[in-house]
């Protein structure tokens, strides 16, 4: 029996090959073998110290940041839990206690 890769979308082990495509019968995702090895298109997001960030990480703010549209300031050392990485200039989407939903730049945080 051939050893096919798990589905990159739902991680199902029941994938099969159809010509040059791999197909997942559970979620109907189709991908090529080249897509399986091509991870160069993913952008690595790093914190101020060069550590790679992932969804769900906890970070701290490394300097006081002005909150746009408000007179309040996000203080240095503020802990931010369960970050979510997004595309764009402000590449961290999060909720901060006392401030609510906010977007941050990864250059102003460090991973705990």
Automatic annotation (TrEMBL):
Residues 45-111 form the Protein YjdM C-terminal domain. It comes from the Bacteria. Pfam families: YjdM, Zn_Ribbon_YjdM. InterPro entries: YjdM, YjdM_C, YjdM_N. Residues 4-32 form the Protein YjdM N-terminal domain. Gene3D superfamilies: 2.20.25.10, SH3 Domains. NCBIfam families: phnA (TIGR00686). Belongs to the YjdM family. This is Protein YjdM.
């Amino acid at each position: 029996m051939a050893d096919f890769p798990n589905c990159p979308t739902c991680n199902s082990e029941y994938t099969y090959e159809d010509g040059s495509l791999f197909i997942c019968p559970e979620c109907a995702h189709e991908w090529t073998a080249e897509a399986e090895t091509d991870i160069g298109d993913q952008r690595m997001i790093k914190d101020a110290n060069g550590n790679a960030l992932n969804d769900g990480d906890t970070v701290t703010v490394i300097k006081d940041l002005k909150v746009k549209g408000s007179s309040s300031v996000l203080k240095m050392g503020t802990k931010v839990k369960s970050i979510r990485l997004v595309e764009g200039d402000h590449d961290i989407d999060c909720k901060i206690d006392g401030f609510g939903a906010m977007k941050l730049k990864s250059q102003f945080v460090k991973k705990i």
